[in-house]
Amino acid sequence: MNTAWPQDTHAWLRSARLALRRFTPADFGFLHGLYADPAVARYLGGVKSRDECEIMLRERVLAYYDEYPGLGIWLTCMRDGGAAVGLHLLNHIRGEAHIQVGYALARPYWGHGYATEMSRALLHYGFSVRGLRQITAITDPDNSASQQVLLKCGLHRRGERVLAHPSYAGKPLAWFELDAADWARAAPPLRAEMRSELA
C-alpha cells in the first residue's frame, strides 16, 4: 500500500487519473442517470427504469460484493476531486463461470482514455492479485469504440457467442479473451495503487 494514500477515502484502486470504490445506496441517483441516457445505455441492454436500476444496484452490485469478495461493479471517480464518471467491473458474465472486465462512462467523460486506463488497472489486479487464469469481455458487435478499448488493453477477439442468460436477449456478442500468460508477457508498465481488501 502506498503510504501517501488518503485515509478518508473509500477508494481501493487508483490509476493515474481515476479511482474505484464500492457503490453504496447513496449512489443510486448516479447509476440511474447513467442508464437513463440512451447514448450510454445503447449497448448496455437499453435504458433502464428507476425500478430496474434499483434491482440492479441491490442484486447485481451490492449483494455481489458479499457473494464474491474481491470482484464486482465499482463506481469510477476522478482521482482528484472524486467526481463520479462511470463504472468499471470485474465480475462474472451472467449465468457463466467466465470473469469479465467491463465499463460504462457518462457521456461528458467519453474520449479521454478513462475506460482503457482503469481497465488496464483491473487486468493487473485480476491477474496479479486475484490469480485469475483468464479474463474475458463481451460487447455488442456494433460497438466499435468499446472493442478498440479492449484491443488496446491486450484482449483478443475470439469471434462471437450467444449467451444463455435472458439479460443478453439471445443476441450474438463479440467475445474477447486474455490469458494470464499472455498478459504477463505483454502488459505495459502501470501506474496503479490498490488496497484490495476494500474491493
Automatic annotation (TrEMBL):
One of its GO terms (molecular function) is acyltransferase activity, transferring groups other than amino-acyl groups. PROSITE patterns: GNAT. Residues 18-174 form the N-acetyltransferase domain. InterPro entries: Acyl_CoA_acyltransferase, GNAT_dom, N-acetyltransferase. Pfam families: Acetyltransf_3. PANTHER family: GNAT FAMILY, PUTATIVE (AFU_ORTHOLOGUE AFUA_3G00765)-RELATED-RELATED (PTHR43792), N-ACETYLTRANSFERASE DOMAIN-CONTAINING PROTEIN (PTHR43792:SF1). This is N-acetyltransferase domain-containing protein. It comes from Metallibacterium scheffleri. The lineage of its organism: Bacteria, Pseudomonadati, Pseudomonadota, Gammaproteobacteria, Lysobacterales.
